[in-house]
Amino acid sequence: MGKTIYYHKENKLDKLSKEQTLDLTFDLINAFSLVRNSSEAADFINNLFTADEIKDLAKRLRIAKLLIKGDSQRDISKSVHCSLATVTKINIWLQESGNGLKSIIDKLPQNQKMPENLKRIPIEFQAPQALFATAKYLLAKNQKGKTEKFLEKVESKKLTDKTLKESFSEEFRARKGKL
Question: How is the chain split into domains, by residue range?
Answer without folding.
Answer: 111-179
